[in-house]
Design brief:
This protein has 183 residues and is α/β, with parallel strands linked by helices. It has helices spanning 4-8, 43-54, 68-76, 90-101, 118-121, 135-138, 153-164, 168-178, and strands at 12-16, 27-31, 34-38, 58-63, 81-84, 108-112, 126-129, 143-144. α2 (43-54) runs parallel beside α7.
Length: 183
């Protein structure tokens, strides 16, 4: 369970991509001599990100590698900030993002899974991990999802955060009203 006081300070939700929003698999191949890459994203994570955006959270995807597949999915979901740092240096990229947005580390929740996420997780107000995260990450975080990365962990983390903020029911109601439906 996420501490409501901590959750109340969160204005930006950042998520690692590979192993958090995907199942860690990367499919590579060549088509007519062109390199192609495929990734599998969970559809429920995408819906939850729409709910989070409706509730005013800034969403950022932070990856240690560039991928056209990630760029396509982020654009499809209208993710506010997409960081793909080829050198896997997430802290400098996040620091720049926070300065640009006028936010402090204590206003950030981050969902990670692996060693490259540790420097960011040590700084944020709400460090979170997916169920299949490495032990070093799990030992550091305040919240761990039951779902593995790529299997709805993003949705679970968003729901837990919005519930702790007391805004989950409003997010669902707003979603249904926007679709012309009622709960």
């Amino acid at each position: 369970m996420i501490d409501p006081e901590v959750a109340g300070r969160i204005k930006l939700l950042a998520l690692d991509v590979d192993g958090v929003l995907t199942n860690n698999a990367i499919y590579l191949g060549l088509v007519e001599g062109q390199r192609i890459e495929f990734k599998q994203f969970d559809i429920q994570d995408g819906l939850a990100m729409g709910l989070a955006r409706r509730m005013g959270l800034v969403l950022a995807w932070v990856s240690g590698r560039y991928s056209d597949a990630t760029t396509l999915r982020a654009a499809e979901l209208r993710i506010d900030e997409l960081i793909q740092d080829k050198e896997a240096r997430k802290v400098p990229a996040m620091t720049e993002l926070l300065l640009r947005r006028g936010l402090g580390w204590e206003e950030v929740a981050f969902l990670g899974d692996d060693l490259a996420d540790l420097p960011v997780l040590r700084r944020v107000g709400l460090p979170m991990a997916v169920a299949n995260a490495v032990d070093e990450v799990k030992g550091l975080v305040s919240y761990t999802t039951r779902a593995a990365g790529g299997s709805g962990a993003g949705r679970e983390a968003i729901e837990a955060l919005l519930r702790a903020q007391g805004r989950w029911d409003e997010a669902v109601r707003t979603y249904l009203e926007d679709r012309g439906e009622t709960a």
